[in-house]
Predict the 3D structure of the following.
Amino acid sequence: MKDENVEKNLPKYIFVVGGVISGVGKGVAASSIGLIMQARGYKVTSIKIDPYINVDAGTMNPTEHGEVFVLDDGDECDQDMGNYERFLGEDLGRSNYMTTGRVYQEVIRKERNLEYKGKNVEVVPDVPFEVIRRIKEATKNTNSDITIIEIGGTVGEYQNVLFLEAARILKAKHPTDVAFVLVSYLPVPSNLGEMKTKPTQYASRTLNSAGVQADVIIARGPIALDKKRKEKIALFCNVPEENVISAPDVKSIYDIPLNFEKDKMGETLTRVLHLPKKTANLTKWKNFVSKTKNGEEKVKIAVVGKYFDSGDFVLSDVYISILEALKFSSYESHVGIEIACVNSKDFESKKIPLSMLKKYDGVIVPGGFGESGIEGIISAIGYARKEKIPYFGLCYGMQLLVIEFARNVLGLKDANTREINPKSKNLVIDVMEDQKEKIKNNNLGGSMRLGAYPATLVKGTIARNAYGTSTISERHRHRYEVNNEYKEKLEKAGLIFSGMSPDGKLCEIAELSTKDHPFFLGTQFHPEFKARPLSPHPLFSAFIKACIKNKKK
Ligand code: GLN
């Protein structure tokens, strides 16, 4: 029998919005929805909308906004874009990310170019129209059947109201092609011990006041939703009971797509979007998830960074792609992982001794900017070098490796980077040629060396053996680089530049011979941005293997 409700109309759009509080995993929910629809054979893409005026995330401080994720095309965007890429296994591009700043910039550009043909340009509807144009453009660029659009923030904020208006208009124009998912939070106040639905009811009503009715409500909370509360939400928020999905806290975010699927999220969205029924093939994902459960044996990694402190709280979100990359590679090696966030400033103040690093099987130093915490990091790198603890430096972590080596092996005591001390006589890390003018003119937004660049690897090195190929492509985000005037001296002292830009001008990877150290390697790029659950990153995997070996020793 033909199902009357089924249309072949594609593409479809799924908006994911948040209610009650932020930080309950809207990005992971959006990614998981993407995965379960992809598992039904659809081509899926995801868009993140950030309500900030900032044109991109590159100008936001990581301790405020979290990690800045970099795409192949060099766009500096929100960390959720990393989740989308990891869950979907797809490379996204600039059109998958928008901010208020970016939208207004385009509307104003068009106005200046007389593209509105003398019309009054109004906040409504011209701004929402530009938002819709962007959503359709991303859908077209990626040739997608289903586009998931996550609107940042929570409903009821002034900031995202124009994006909700865009969503409302799109739904009005394509009633059967647009679905709304509200990710809400159900607190269990400790003095009551009972899960409360009222904040979700308010969130749903606030959404209604923007002209939008949720089709699906994801009930995040510390525990699973019971039948009684499911009924209550259904009744007061105007959704069928089966469209209320329970989403309790989980140990691993990678379980979430499977939990959603169990709670029939895929079927529900199929119904809402008038799509034909299909079964989801999640075999590969299930296989990966089963590996996340192993780990009697755990490898212990110290991430020595400078962006952990936020008042009295410790943030690890700043380095989320690194943490995930480490996990994928340890699961692949059939071990569990324990990651400690070590604040390098605590080495400087002597709050903790360097010798605490001995407890760990490996040390990682992530990227970063500016002076604070840097001497602490350099001494940690020196400790890892001398104590032969596997060390992996990413971007700044590579530049600081070179500085440490220059100071303590080459004996250039004041070796430094121009970023910290331009007066140093030995600037082993210097500003990139094409960055000088930009810095002088204060042209600082989206102007670093950004995005994917190729590099050539040297035979017989850790890097080359890990990748198993001679050319690679990795994502960059930096203004400084190894100063070629020191290259030969550093090499003579034992540092190997195992990865170079194809023209031989830029040092992209530095390492020590395995004769001298089990694993001491730094990359000018950010390999963490290309690590995926189903394809762990070769350098992270080589590092984890060295850590496991170190542990056994
Ligand atoms: N601050 C350094 C530079 O700009 C490193 C940047 C980074 O770690 N992403 O070159």
